[in-house]
Amino acid sequence: MPQLIWINGRVMPLAEAKIGVEDRGFQFADGVYEVVRIYDSKLFALDEHLERLARSSAGILLTMPMAAAKLAGEIAALTARSGVAEGMLYLQLTRGVSPRGHVFAPEPHQHTLLFYVMPLDPPAAAPPGVKLHRVEDDRWQRCCIKSIALLPNVLAKNAAAAVGADEAVFVDHGVVTECAASNFFAVIGGKLVTHPVGAKVLPGITRQILLELCPSLGIPVSERPLRESEALAAEEMFIASTTREINWVSHWDGRVVGGGSCGAVTRRLHQALRERVTG
Amino acid sequence: MPQLIWINGRVMPLAEAKIGVEDRGFQFADGVYEVVRIYDSKLFALDEHLERLARSSAGILLTMPMAAAKLAGEIAALTARSGVAEGMLYLQLTRGVSPRGHVFAPEPHQHTLLFYVMPLDPPAAAPPGVKLHRVEDDRWQRCCIKSIALLPNVLAKNAAAAVGADEAVFVDHGVVTECAASNFFAVIGGKLVTHPVGAKVLPGITRQILLELCPSLGIPVSERPLRESEALAAEEMFIASTTREINWVSHWDGRVVGGGSCGAVTRRLHQALRERVTG
């Protein structure tokens, strides 16, 4: 069966779906997106993702083209039809096609709304280790918006790949903010430390779930800016995202960190997240 | 005649040209662009634009898909065929279609290369006045790359339009950098002052031509960071771009600036630019 896409209300093979050259998503990165995990044929935390989509959309002054409940129904229908049990749903919303110009027309906006499903490997039983590559955080000041203006993230992640690392970690004037496509966490004195969401940090859905799990696990949390020197001396470091779940950090710019093995707090959080997913 | 587009070597009506959903330009803003002015059916400063395109492309580690001379020939042919005497050519180059993922494949890259012509009004005999709206410069640190990751510029320019202004001017920690789609200049003590190109300022082609014209006009130039307070007290302010040429600044956040009329240095530079274009 070909990979299917839902695009502006029509379902067709992904390879046949096309975008207009003057789509503002293509010419101006004028759009937002979401990635939702599919476990056992079910969409995980879909409501949370659609709430964030609405916030991202509002952040770029773009009205949602349909109510969340209706969108959720369309997404569920395509996911069921895809036959994918373990995978992800990619959703993108742009301000649609109009003659090229920076200023957008008043509402109602044109929209391009699309989503499609991609298979992924089933989640790992234990957190995989990852190598981080440090990159100066050169991104814009509104990273809390999940926009498609991802070129800085692409360049950072490619710089990481070029040196054999798995992910880029952004450092902004000595402060660790987040990674190119995941949030960053450290365990310091038994406390989970992560940068607050805002100008430089996306409100990750997995991040939020982990912070919600901490109290019942007895893990104290501190949302605060974290200096690079603190991170490097931390007992544990890990990263988290919808597609990665939790990965413990084994290397930082080639240097072994966190004692070279997955730490106890990381492991407990990974276990709790797995239970949340399967429970 | 329908508006024509050249896309990956084929010429077709613009409305029929389509982009793949997984074009990296659409999903990651992974691309660069140029806007070239057409005067009297001729492409103005095409070589300079293609040189900048090559630098932007190198800046995002994207190889050019064809030699500049061949590209210039294709552009000239489409421009002639368009029948547009006064207008602009829009060119966009992306890393093409591949399954979605931040990390791009090693070379040779896929490319999407396209260009098309849009008509514009003939240039004004005297510089038009424009109102600027001040916006905090929240963009990334590599604005010298003319990338399609334009969402911050779109939002700034829309904020300007929402208050009846013509253009947004970015201020970065008290320093005037550039505008959403043009470079910024002030005349202070008879000297032309503009921010150096780099992290926050695009190497504008019109900017460069103006700086080259200054010596023969006896206008001293200072490329240096310019504080907002200095700009507001300047004798003259103007902005410049390929499509605007030179516009003098009449208002800054609703406040009349530069004495409320086009200044003498601005007028001389506009005249010299017009002679360069027509000569």
Quick rundown:
The structure is a homodimer of 279-residue chains. By secondary structure, chain A is α+β, with helices and mostly antiparallel strands.
Would you mind describing this structure in some detail?
Two copies of one chain form a homodimer. The first copy, chain A, is α+β, with helices and mostly antiparallel strands and 279 residues long. Chain A has helices spanning 24-28, 46-59, 68-82, 151-162, 205-217, 228-232, 264-278, and strands at 4-7, 10-13, 18-20, 31-39, 42-43, 87-94, 112-119, 129-136, 167-172, 175-179, 183-188, 191-194, 221-223, 226-227, 236-241, 245-252, 255-256. The longest helix of chain A is centred in the N-terminal third of the chain and has 15 residues, at 68-82. Chain A is globular, with a radius of gyration of 19 Å. In chain A, 49% of the residues are buried. The interface between A and B is large, with 53 and 53 residues. β3 (18-20) of chain A pairs antiparallel with β3 (18-20) of chain B.
Number of strands of chain A: 17
The largest β sheet of chain A comes out as: 10 strands, mixed
Please trace the helix and strand order of chain A, writing H or E for each element: EEEHEEHHEEEHEEEEHEEHEEEH
Greatest interface by residues involved: A-B, 53 and 53 residues
The end-to-end span of chain A amounts to 31 Å
**Proportion of beta-strand residues of chain A:** 25-35%
Overall structural class of chain A, as computed from helix and strand content, comes to: alpha+beta
**Approximately how much helix is present in the residues of chain A?**
25-40%
Oligomer: homodimer
The rough form of chain A would be described as globular
What's the gyration radius of chain A in Å?
Answer: 19 Å
